[in-house]
Specification:
By secondary structure, this protein is an alpha+beta fold. It folds into 5 domains: 100 residues, Rossmann fold; 70 residues, ATP-grasp fold, A domain (Dna Ligase, domain 1), CATH 3.30.1490.20; 249 residues, D-amino Acid Aminotransferase, Chain A, domain 1 (2-Layer Sandwich), CATH 3.30.470.20; 125 residues, Glycoprotein, Type 4 Pilin, CATH 3.30.700.40; 69 residues, RNA polymerase II/Efflux pump adaptor protein, barrel-sandwich hybrid domain (OB fold (Dihydrolipoamide Acetyltransferase, E2P)), CATH 2.40.50. Helices cover 26% and strands 32% of the residues. The chain contains 18 helices and 39 strands. Strands 14-13-10-11-12-15-22-20 form an 8-stranded antiparallel beta sheet, with helices on both faces. The protein has an 8-stranded antiparallel barrel with strand order 24-25-26-27-28-29-30-31. The chain has a 5-stranded parallel beta sheet with strand order 3-2-1-4-5. β13 and β14 form a beta hairpin. α12 packs antiparallel against α13. The radius of gyration is 27 Å and the shape is globular. Acetyl-CoA carboxylase is a heterohexamer of biotin carboxyl carrier protein, biotin carboxylase and the two subunits of carboxyl transferase in a 2:2 complex. Pathway: Lipid metabolism; malonyl-CoA biosynthesis; malonyl-CoA from acetyl-CoA: step 1/1. InterPro entries: ATP-grasp (IPR011761), BC-like_N (IPR005481), Biotin_carboxylase_complex (IPR050856), Biotin_carboxylation_dom (IPR011764), Biotin_COase_C (IPR005482), Biotin_lipoyl (IPR000089), CPAse_ATP-bd (IPR005479), MCC_alpha_BT (IPR048429). It catalyses: N(6)-biotinyl-L-lysyl-[protein] + hydrogencarbonate + ATP = N(6)-carboxybiotinyl-L-lysyl-[protein] + ADP + phosphate + H(+).
Length: 679
Amino acid sequence: MSQTDSRTTPFDTLLVANRGEIACRVMRTARAMGLRTVAVYSDADANARHVREADEAVRLGPAAARESYLKVEAVVEAAKRTGAGAIHPGYGFLSENGAFVQALDAAGITFVGPPASAIAAMGDKSAAKARMANAGVPLVPGYHGGDQDDALLKSEADKIGYPVLLKASAGGGGKGMRVVESGEQFQAALDGCRRESQAAFGDTRMLIEKYLTQPRHVEVQVFCDSHGNGVYLFERDCSVQRRHQKVLEEAPAPGMSAELRREMGEAAVRAAKEIGYVGAGTVEFLLDKDGSFYFMEMNTRLQVEHPVTEMITGQDLVEWQLRVAMGEALPLRQEALTITGHSFEARLYAEDPEQDFLPATGKLERFAMDLKGAGLDPERVRLDSGVETGDVVSMHYDPMLAKLIVHGDDREQALSTLNRALAALDVQGVVTNRAFLQRLATHPAFRNVELDTRFIEKNEATLFAPKQYSIEEYAGAALIGLNQLARECESDSPWDRHDGFRLNAPHTIRISLCDPAHVQDEENVVVVEGTRETDADPWHLTIGSETLTARLQHLEGDAVAVTLNGHRRRLQARRDGNVVVMVDPRGETRLFWRRIDAIDHGHHEAESTLTAPMHGTVVALLVEAGQKVEKGMPLMVMEAMKMEHTMTAPADGHVESFHFNAGDTVGQGDVLLEFAPVE
């Protein structure tokens, strides 16, 4: 073993100060190296997968990250109590917290990452720009100064010229970051960025950069040891993003010449050595159409997308991290590193792309991927996950469930494997972006490498085309919604029935069904008729010119059997507010359900209230009770899974009252406020 410095020493027990997918991934390599693993957890994660897989687990505190995963003293104490000689921070949480590294140094515990001085150098984005200029790394024009006066920031943005990018000086991962298209939008964007930055990093300082309209996001993986060695493990293209967070990544970046790859790689190593870096880091660049590249930021940790680099180099980057932390020299020199094939990573999020990517919560009824059944090579497909069937996805943390990573001999083969693997991924019980990932991966522009950071925005019309539903899906949703009404009855009395029951007479119910993302567009009407005296009697459903005889049977849990004209199929069914969710092996269907017959008052009530689209916390009330507002005007801000979401007025009118205050926790479907539309 190489000589160690004051920060590096061998260890046999590793504490992973994180959760979910990255905690499981780090522990996998640690176990392979013969290390004992320790997990930490909050109350919300007491039964989480990373806790189950560790050799030992220590509770940190309540669900809120600031009271558990972000508590430096609690994590240090957990390491001392379990005899952990080192801590791997994963990404997020304390991974780029210099004070945490200093606390570990004081406690004699090895930090698997760079020294605190390197984190500080890159953690302050403004100071980092100055250091990079000294190292000869190209920079994007912008303002990185310490004066944070609102008027000065606005003036600097005006000088740079719109659009500009507002970015949290202390942040990363898309938090506290917004594109500002005009001076009129600047103050509102600045206020929102500061709120997000304060919540995520405890810091409200901002920097401003010229927003390049068609750049690619290309980042370089670097590695340095404590012996002065530094290498780059090539680059990744991370241009497909939404809200500045990556969705699809690939390595190597397509269309890169050997010369450009070398120039960017060497610039990245210069950046790392400028700040005395040790360990794994990523230097992120904006690559313009003319081949010019500009330093954006350095992430002083392991990246979410590191597996694509592992796939093309054949190296385990977590093993490299652990060996460097033990004081060893880098396993390979630059000339020994090569690229083999092509790799993609798709991030699976618990979110609804059809509802502006709103975070989703719930129980995973099924989470699996049948590689053999799909004819996929397990050596070419990797699923890095922090969840299993039966786990509960909460509102407290990032919505990423897993990463699907594939490898091929070339980009075309890798992309084909990605599409087949996404189709083989079976996730039920929680809304995810799986279908959206498939649309991205099969999009002609993506296949043709027409990439830039606004890819999703530019191709919105084709990526979010309205879904076409079948007669069976409309009929099933009508039955499930109607059955839920019947089950909500207060008693067995016919006077309490909500499902249109009429004594000794047929009854008719009219139900409107439509895509939840297009509630205001055309609707499909299902006419329900029946003389049902018992629950076993059939319904008669008319959809357009077709009439079906229908029955619904409850099975275990959320499972139901829907029988249409004698054809029976089993599915998982539930209602999220006014949305009926149906899941079977073919996929997930969501339909907005509303009664439109004479006894229905739902539409009127919907106009006079505003409900929470997801579980979360109220951040700010933007208007006062009694205030007149216009359609689309921001009314309040919610936060869920570390992202802000603004609730807007559904029509012209005025806010009668708020049901929650800033800081309150709300559940999906909770009525947030009373709203009176203009008559």
